[in-house]
């Protein structure tokens, strides 16, 4: 492993093109949004015999592992060379399950790199069958533990120039390396939205992506139960997968026309967290110095896990898989033999029993003392990292997608995880009302004299003297309260047309013309955080924006002709009575 001395970070601004096309020499944090999209073909590469002298074919590349042959694709009228399913590690099967990846053995002949590789083992999300917004994230290739493969997209013009010039004259272009997200529990580089054909067709940049193990297959941590030299369940196997893939790309960059010193990692969500880990980890020193981090960093609470937490979750999974965690103390090897014999489907399902609430994923990079030697925030505060360049950004409202998991009824994903018994005590502890309204505060707010002034003993008589009720509800009083003409003013014939224009008439009800009632347009904004039930009765001609967080029931009775925006988070029932012609 190459190590470079740690440099003191400095800050300065840079542009994306400048960042990609020069050697990094400074640390920079820039706010931006990177969009990675777009279009592609499905499962394992094969090797055929061929002579290594066939260098006239630009689709044939000689790597340090062996010859690979890709395919030509036309994107936006431009040709690119694509290489799918290039292995960088031995399949992590059998004794290699729950261990760090082992570099792939060199192969003889030509490897067929024209078919998308397997996706690493994971569950498919099938809560909403047929809904493209969900299915677009499910693996589109075979799910298997044999999944450690790379994909590359290379502009044809780079390959042709590269193969037609001497090694000294060959151009070297930057390389972008994509790391997918998925909460360290799911994801695959083969998704159509991750196809980098457009980037390769429109820029002088090589794009690569890798598969890495997710869930327990990539992050099971039982290292404390083994001696220091053991390779059993060390945690962070998925991070080591990524690191080995990056090492392979750096070693073979020149073969594809890339510059090994101009490698930029980029990823989203857990992929962004992974980029953060690589830029911070001492394991990666000398490999990469720049990253584009989208919607996920290492200081997010879901993006790392203490060794103690990871070991506890690992022990729980051992029990859930029927392998008896009590044997870890005396016979840990026996436990691992049992875990390797467990069907991958069982491991994949049982790991979710450790899901501890929204964003409480069962797997994450672990502070293992090696890949992450210390708490990431401590490492950043101490400047324990090399000179680094970073672009950062996030996507608006993307976290709302995760709320789907709360109400799906999966084991370990119910409302008890959103507000488990302990959480409401933490959120609204028994003494919270005293903290909010301590005895002395109410005395200051409402001294004893105030109640007498506010409600003197004779106040009810003054407010409703005996004769007043007679006047109020005398036979003629209802006519005074609601004379015939008042109802016409309150509910004029045209009011329903204002509230429900002709196209929406008949939607319902005899409703008031709120413009007459309120006399003006009013917009209501409510941001409510409370331990109590919420009862709202709202009548307004203006839009309504509600943002509510409560462990109690919510009762809403709303009448408005304008749009209603509701953002509610509660494990209890929601009762809605809404009358509006708008969304």
What are the salient characteristics of this protein?
alpha/beta; 583 residues; 22 helices; 2 domains; 4-stranded mixed beta sheet; disordered N terminus; 9-stranded mixed beta sheet; Rossmann fold
Question: What is this structure's SSE topology?
Answer:
Elements: H1 16-20, E1 29-31, E2 47-48, E3 60-62, E4 67-69, E5 71-75, E6 78-87, E7 110-112, E8 119-120, H2 132-135, E9 143-144, E10 149-155, H3 156-164, E11 173-179, H4 197-202, E12 206-210, H5 216-219, H6 237-256, E13 258-268, H7 270-280, E14 290-294, H8 307-320, H9 332-341, H10 344-350, H11 376-381, E15 389-393, H12 415-418, H13 421-427, H14 432-436, H15 439-445, H16 448-454, H17 459-463, H18 466-472, H19 477-481, H20 484-490, H21 495-499, H22 514-518, E16 524-529, E17 534-539, E18 544-549, E19 554-559, E20 564-569, E21 574-579
Parallel strand pairs: 1-15, 4-7, 8-9, 11-12, 11-13, 13-14, 14-15, 16-18, 17-19, 18-20, 19-21
Antiparallel strand pairs: 2-7, 3-4, 5-6, 6-10, 10-12
């Amino acid at each position: 492993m190459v190590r470079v001395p740690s440099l003191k970070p400095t800050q300065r601004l840079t542009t994306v093109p400048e960042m990609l096309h020069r050697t990094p020499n400074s640390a920079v944090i820039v706010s931006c949004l990177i969009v990675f999209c777009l279009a592609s073909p499905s499962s394992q590469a094969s090797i055929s015999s061929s002579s290594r002298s066939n260098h006239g074919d630009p689709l044939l590349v000689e790597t340090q592992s062996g010859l690979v042959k890709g395919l030509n694709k036309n994107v936006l009228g431009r040709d690119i060379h694509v290489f799918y399913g290039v292995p960088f590690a031995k399949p992590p099967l059998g004794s290699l399950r729950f261990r760090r990846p082992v570099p792939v053995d060199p192969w003889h002949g030509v490897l067929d790199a024209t078919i998308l590789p397997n996706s690493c083992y994971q569950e498919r999300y099938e809560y909403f069958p047929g809904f493209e917004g969900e299915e677009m994230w499910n693996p589109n290739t075979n799910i298997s533990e044999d999944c450690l493969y790379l994909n590359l997209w290379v502009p044809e013009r780079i390959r042709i120039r590269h193969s037609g010039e001497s090694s000294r004259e060959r151009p070297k272009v930057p390389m972008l390396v994509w790391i997918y997200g998925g909460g360290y529990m799911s994801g695959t580089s083969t998704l159509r939205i991750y196809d980098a054909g457009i980037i390769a067709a429109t820029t002088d940049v090589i794009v690569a992506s890798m598969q890495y193990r997710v869930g327990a297959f990539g992050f099971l941590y039982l290292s404390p139960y083994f001696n220091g030299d053991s390779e059993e369940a060390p945690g962070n196997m998925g991070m080591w997968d990524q690191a080995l893939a990056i090492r392979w790309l750096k070693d073979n960059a020149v073969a594809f026309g890339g510059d090994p010193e101009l490698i930029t990692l980029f990823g989203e969500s857990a992929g962004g967290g992974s980029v953060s880990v690589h830029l911070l980890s001492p394991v990666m020193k000398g490999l990469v110095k720049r990253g584009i981090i989208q919607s996920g960093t290492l200081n997010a609470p879901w993006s790392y896990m203490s060794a103690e937490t990871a070991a506890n979750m690992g022990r729980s999974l051992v029990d859930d898989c029927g392998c008896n965690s009590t044997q870890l103390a005396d016979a840990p090897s026996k436990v691992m033999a049992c875990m390797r014999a467990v069907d991958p489907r069982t491991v994949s399902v049982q790991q979710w029993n450790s899901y501890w609430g929204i964003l409480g994923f069962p797997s994450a990079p672990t502070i293992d003392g090696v890949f992450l030697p210390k708490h990431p925030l401590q490492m950043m505060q101490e400047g324990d990292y090399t000179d680094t360049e970073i672009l950062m950004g996030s996507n608006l409202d993307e976290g709302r997608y995760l709320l789907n998991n709360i109400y799906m009824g999966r084991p370990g994903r119910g409302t008890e995880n959103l507000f488990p018994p302990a959480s409401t005590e933490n959120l609204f502890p028994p003494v919270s009302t005293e903290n909010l309204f301590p005895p002395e505060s109410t005395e200051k707010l409402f001294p004893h004299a105030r109640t007498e002034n506010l409600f003197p003993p004779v106040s009810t008589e003054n407010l409703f003297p005996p004769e007043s009720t007679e006047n109020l509800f005398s036979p003629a009083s209802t006519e005074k309260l609601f004379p015939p003409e008042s109802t016409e003013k309150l509910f004029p014939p045209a009011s329903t047309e204002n509230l429900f224009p002709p196209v929406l008439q008949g939607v319902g009800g005899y409703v008031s013309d709120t413009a007459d009632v309120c006399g003006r347009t009013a917009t209501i904004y409510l941001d409510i955080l409370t331990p109590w039930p919420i009862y709202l009765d709202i009548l307004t001609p203006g839009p309504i924006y509600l943002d509510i967080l409560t462990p109690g029931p919510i009762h809403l009775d709303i009448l408005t002709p304008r749009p209603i925006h509701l953002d509610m988070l509660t494990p209890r029932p929601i009762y809605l009575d809404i009358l509006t012609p708008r969304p």
